[in-house]
Amino acid sequence: MHPTLKFAVSAPGKVILNGEHSVVYGKAAIAGTIGLRNILTLQANSLSKISINLDILHNVLECDLSDFNSLLEIIYPIYKNQDLPKNLNHNEFLDKIKNFVLNTKFFENFNVADHVNTLSALFYLLSGILISNDIHKLTGGFIVSMKSGITTGAGLGSSASYGVCLAGSFYFYTKSLKSIDFIERFNKMSDDEQVSIKTEISDWAFCSEKIMANNTICTFGGLVKFYRNQKPTPLKFAKSLNILLIDSCVSRSTAAMVEKVLNQKTENAHRVQEVFDKIEKVVDEVAKILEDESLPTRFRQLSELFSKNHQLLSELNVSHKELDNIQQICARYGLSSKLTGAGGGGYAIAVLPDDYQQRHDEFSKLTEELTGAGYQVRDTTVGNVGFQVDIVKNE
Ligand SMILES: Nc1ncnc2c1ncn2[C@@H]1O[C@H](COP(=O)(O)OP(=O)(O)O)[C@@H](O)[C@H]1O
Ligand SMILES: C[C@@](O)(CCOP(=O)(O)O)CC(=O)O
C-alpha cells in the first residue's frame, strides 16, 4: 500500500478524417487524435474503500474493499495462470464483473443498472490487470476521479479514451504497488520500452471497447491509416493539423447509419461500390498529402478533398440538413467542412489554414455565425499526443 501515491493519466478523443462507411466494406480510413482529453486522477489512501468520482455519474460512488476482495478471491484462482488479456474469455469474465457491479451497493439510491457498462469497464480492467500482475488482494483503498473533456456518444472516441484512461491508471497503480517509483521510471524509458508498455495498455483497453483503431489511436496518438479490425498504421512525418470541430447538436446512431448504407448496397450494389471506390481515392490522396513533408501548406488541397468526401457521403444519404448547412456557412468563409463519423448528425470538421489564429476577426465571425445557427464550435488540432501519465505532487 502506498498512501502517498497520486498520479494523473489522460487520453485524447479521436476523429475520422476520411473513409467513414467505406471502411466497413474493407477500404482504408484516416483518423487522428484530437486536442480534447479525458483526465483521470488516481490517489491511493489507507481507507478500506474504492471511491469512484466520474463527473458523468454526478455522484461519488464507494465500493467496500472487502466486497472487491471477495470478487478477487473468486476470480483470481480461475484466471491467474492465463496469459491475460490475450487468452481472456471476454464474455465469461465480463458476466462475472457485471454480476458483481449489479449486486454492489455503491451509493444510496444510485441506479446501478443505468450505468452498468461504465462501471463494469472499470472493475473489469481493475481486476484483470491486478490478476495479470499476480495480485489477489488489495490492502489499501484509492479514489479515481475522472474529468471528462470529450462529448460522449458523439463519435469523438470518448469510450476509447475512457478505456485507455482506466487501463492506463490501473496498470500504473498495479506496477506502483510493486515498485513505487514505476511512473517516474516509465517517463524516463526509451521510446521502445514505452511503446511496449503502451501496447499492453492499449490491449487491455481493447477489452472495454472492441474497436481496435480507436484504442490504438487514443493510446499512441498521431494520425493513422487503418482498416477495420486491424491495428492502424501511423502516417509517417504527418504533422498535426488545425481543425474546427462543429457539433451539429443532432443526435445520431452509428448503427442506424451503417444499416442505411447496407440497405442501399443491397438495393444497388454497383452505385454504392462506385462511391466507395471514389472515397478510397480521396483517402489515398489525403494520406499522400499528410505524409508529404515538402508541402508548404496542406490547407487548399485538403479542403478540396474534404468537400469531395462530404459530397460522396451525401450520395450515400448519411448527411443531414444541419451538416449541409454547416458546410454552406463554412464555405462562405473559405473553409470546407465534412461530416465525420457515421453522419446523420453528430460532428462536422473543417481544415483550418495554418495562420487562422492571426486572421482573428474573420475566424470570430465564422464562429459567431455557426454558434448563432445553434451549433457548438471548438478549434483544436488533429494528430496530437496519445496516452500520458504523470505523478501529481501535493502542494
Ligand atoms: N469521461 C467518461 N467517464 C465515464 N464514462 C465514460 C466517459 N467517456 C465515455 N464513457 C463511457 O463510454 C460511453 C459512450 O460510448 P459511445 O456511445 O460509444 O460514445 P463515443 O462515440 O463517444 O465513444 C459512455 O456511456 C460511458 O459508458
Ligand atoms: C460509419 C463508420 O465507418 C464510422 C463510425 O464512426 P463513429 O463511431 O460514428 O465515429 C462505422 C464503422 O467504421 O464502424
Automatic annotation (TrEMBL):
Pathways per UniProt: Isoprenoid biosynthesis; isopentenyl diphosphate biosynthesis via mevalonate pathway; isopentenyl diphosphate from (R)-mevalonate: step 1/3
Matching Gene3D superfamilies: 3.30.230.10, GHMP kinase, C-terminal domain (3.30.70.890)
This protein's GO CC annotations: cytosol
Pfam families referenced in this protein's UniProt entry, alphabetically: GHMP_kinases_C
Single GO MF annotation: mevalonate kinase activity
First-tier enzyme category under EC: transferase
Gene Ontology biological-process annotations: cholesterol biosynthetic process; isopentenyl diphosphate biosynthetic process, mevalonate pathway
UniProt cross-references to InterPro entries, sorted A to Z: GHMP_kinase_C_dom, GHMP_kinase_C_sf, Mev_gal_kin, Ribosomal_Su5_D2-typ_SF, Ribsml_uS5_D2-typ_fold_subgr
Reactions catalysed, as given in the entry: (R)-mevalonate + ATP = (R)-5-phosphomevalonate + ADP + H(+)
Domain of life: Eukaryota
EC number annotated for this UniProt entry: 2.7.1.36
Claim: Hydrolase is one of the keywords in the record: no
GHMP kinase C-terminal domain sequence ranges: 299-355
Subcellular location: Cytoplasm
Keyword vocabulary terms for this entry: ATP-binding, Cytoplasm, Kinase, Lipid biosynthesis, Lipid metabolism, Magnesium, Nucleotide-binding, Steroid biosynthesis, Steroid metabolism, Sterol biosynthesis, Sterol metabolism, Transferase
Family matches, as NCBIfam families: mevalon_kin
Family to which this protein belongs: Belongs to the GHMP kinase family. Mevalonate kinase subfamily.
Name of the protein this chain belongs to: Mevalonate kinase
Native species: Pseudolycoriella hygida
Protein's gene: ERG12
